[in-house]
Amino acid sequence: MLPPTTSHLHSNRCNSQLEHFHLQAVALPAAAAAGCRAAFEQHGAQKGIRFELLPAGPTALRDAMPRPEAFFAVTLPSGERLLHRMATNPRKHPLHFGREVLATLLGAPQRADWKNCLPKLTVGGADLATLEGGLADGLKQKFGPYDPVCPPC
What is the mean pLDDT of residues 54-80? Predict the structure, then answer.
């Protein structure tokens, strides 16, 4: 597995004082990671989403956007970023765009909908909260090295 691919969705609306931010991190096998950039660009083209390629580096996104604006960004396994400024697309940005692309890239397009990713309950088994807690603990272990807030978890 390579470092996780992350997608960021930030939208703001000045007239309603709404700010919203999604951050998703997905670990990709090396074989899938090789096609990550092309998958985002091709899927985006179908939805009117055009990307700018930003260099790898911790300040590239901030440098590219000196003023606050709604955006979608993807950090690729190479460290480069794809940036889409939402104001450049007259269509409404799909909320689950990043999940759609990554689920398709991983060969599981049905998992683009988070409701299809819930743990399965069994009769006489653990309740949903216990199952989710165990899954969360597993994620913390796997992604701990990438957590900037909790080094090392």
Answer: 84
